[in-house]
Amino acid sequence: MLLPDRKEEATRDKRKYKTVKYNIDSKSKNKYKGKTFYLKTYGCQMNERDSETLVAMLKQLGFKEEKDYRKADFLLLNTCSIRENAHNKAFGMLGRFKHLKQTRPEIVIGLCGCMAQETSVCEELLKNYKFVNLVFGTHNLDKLPILVDKAFSSDERQIEVYSREQDLVEDLPVIRSNKYKAYVNIIYGCDKFCTYCIVPYTRGRERSRKKEDILNEIDELIKDGYKEVTLLGQNVNAYGKDLYDDYNLGDLLEEIAKKDIPRIRFMTSHPWDFNDKMIEVIGKYSNIMPSIHLPVQSGSSKVLKLMGRRYTRESYLELFNKIKEIVPGVAISTDIIVGFPGETEEDFEETMSLVEYCKYDNAFTFIFSERKGTPACKIEDNTTLEEKEERLQRLNEVVNEGFLKHNQELVGRVVKVMVEGVSEKKDMYYGYTETNKLINFTSNKELIGGDIVDVEVMDAKTWSLDGRSI
Ligand code: SAM
Ligand code: SF4
To answer: How far apart are CA 84 and CA 339, in angstroms?
Structure first.
């Protein structure tokens, strides 16, 4: 049994990590033929991407995917720990699995991902969730075949969670969930340690993939007919810092933009690491989508300091304005936390005024959720949950008005849309604009996924657009 240790998770050193190639033992291939797995994923795009690899590894072992957990032989939850409600959802699902285990004791139940990296979660699983057979973290996902073997062949519970990142593994198998759009990891982990956030502990230090490995993966995707790639990382703007003296996200984006790929996206950008070269490159290439997720978290410099965000309201706005000026037609979206400990009504008003100024194209808004062991837990919090909920509601009203206004400005305009498929709305297709807005539209010719078509916007709602292809 190997349990995570928070102190070790927080440690950073200059130790060089190795890049190694994934290799599956030929004896393991198809070993579980006839068995099925059920996988449920919580959380961010990084987890979704990890699940694409988990699915591929399980299929190499011979498992078939089963969408109904009640019928599966191996049930796995890939979890998220960013906020309390993510925890609650996973524990709720484990509750359902418990009932199943009573009638089908032979099934194997597993939990992996960010929650597994938390000592308190592992302790809870050990004490109160004795029916969970397998727990592994974010640092040994590539060891799934070995772990599955141990879990299926032994009655002992398998808990293997490393506190520190291991080698960076390339050539992991992947079965992508979308045929036209692909996620490509460019950097793992996070070194920012925002005081509220658990990610630096659960995902380890920042480790960039070698540029050759990323570019090769993109070449393969182009060969396979992919039309859009999204470069992924908790903080993509830190790409390369740990590997190269003079090669960053701007350089990487430029090399990718010169390839024959129609759409390039990237997320998430921490404002702190955004440099002029990146903005210039994003503005220069038409296949780099003018859509940037730039989390602000708060409009108050005092709160930003408490959050450890390393920028002020003023420097954020300077960056925001520079991007708007240099990248034509750019859509900027954001994340905001309300009710951070120490946030007064005046601080919240500063967030409201910043949001009114920025008129974001999209915003994800959250109430602060205390994460055990993070520095924010120690800051005095005098605001009640009711007050926080009321602030969130006021904020959402303003941001939603902003989304509608942006969408209304598009009515009558022609936008480029990548077709995703047939819409749930009768006789319509759906897809996304360059600025990542969902649009349902009619077309008088048959379209297939991945086509990029001109669509005239006819109507605007808060969350989507309606149009017709021309
Ligand atoms: N790396 C990204 C960045 O720095 O902007 C964010 C990644 S995090 C998965 C997504 C969002 O979750 C954050 O931007 C933040 O708004 C929110 N978040 C993180 N920790 C939180 C917490 N303890 N309570 C509430 N929201 C939180
Ligand atoms: Fe969390 Fe901050 Fe890292 Fe984003 S940059 S993952 S919010 S610590």
So the answer is: 15
Using DSSP, state whether 187 is helix, strand or coil. strand
Instruction: Provide CB contacts within 8 A for 260, sequence distance 6+.
Output: 222
Whose Cα sits closest to atom 6 in ligand 1? 234
What CA–CA distance (Å, rounded) separates 213 from 207?
13
Pocket of ligand 1, beta carbon within 6 A? 44, 82-83, 196-197, 199, 234-235, 268, 270, 295, 297, 335, 337, 366, 368-369, 371
Q: Are 241 and 208 in contact (CB under 8 A)?
A: yes
Whether residue 350 contacts residue 299, with contact meaning beta carbons closer than 8 Å, is answered with yes
Closest CA to 56 of 150, 185, 168, 145: 145
User: From the CA of 204, how far away is ligand 2's center (Å)?
Assistant: 11
For the CA of 197, the closest atom of ligand 2 is 1
**Non-local CB neighbours of 168 within 8 Å, separated by 6+ positions:** 17, 18, 19, 20, 188, 207, 209
Residue 1 has pLDDT above 90, yes or no: no
Neighbours of 352 (CB within 10 A): 17
Cα-to-centroid distance, 190 and ligand 2 (Å):
6
Tell me how far apart the alpha carbons of residues 138 and 115 are, in angstroms, rounded to a whole number.
9
How far is residue 19 CA from its own chain's centroid? 23
DSSP state letters, 62-93: T-EE-S-GGG-SEEEEEE--SSHHHHHHHHHH
Tell the residue nearest (CA) to atom 1 of ligand 2. Answer: 197
**What would the pLDDT profile of 87-138 be if each residue is shown by its tens digit?**
999 999 999 999 999 999 999 999 999 999 999 999 999 999 999 999 999 9
> Which alpha helices (H) appear in 224-300, and where do they start and end?
249-257, 276-284
* CA 41 to the chain's CA centroid: 11
DSSP state of 236: G
Between CA 37 and CA 73 the distance in angstroms is 6
Ligand 1 centroid to residue 83 C-alpha, Å:
9
Nearest ligand 1 atom to alpha carbon 197: 20
Rounded to two decimals, the pTM is 0.95
d(CA 145, CA 74): 13
pLDDT of residue 364: 97
